[in-house]
Amino acid sequence: MYHEIDQETQERIDILKREFQQAAIATTGERFPLVTKIMPAVIDGEIYLLLSDLSEHTRNIKEISKRVSIYFAAAEEHGTRLNNPRYTVMGKLYPVPYNDDKKGERYQSMLKHFDKMDKGASMYGMFGDFNIYRFEQMDHLYVEGFGKAYK
Question: Which of 22, 34, 65, 132 could pair with 73 as two cysteines, CB 3.0-4.6 Å apart?
Fold first, then answer.
């Protein structure tokens, strides 16, 4: 059913994780799953998210389950919309410790990565309710188009 991920396929996945057009996170809500738009950053091969504690998806992660799915969608270049590449990773999110020092070198360095993805991230990332989360991958699915699913 699924193709093996070889080196060439992995390279395409890595490019998609860096150059996605849209990304979303699915969390477990009290009554229903919740899917919301996000702006992940890949830092040293790891996926990180800059999230507000005020958002419903972050409350779901903190209060209900750390288990999430993150969806990356490539730019839609094919006329048949479902024949465009997308990548879903499943795993858990954990807050990155920074010793309550958002002006520290580690936090500031990570914010620069988010700022490349979304101008202004280094500003709003300093708000008290924003924190960086590290994604721990447990499974994944890459769909390159019809009949091209990889695990």
Answer: 22
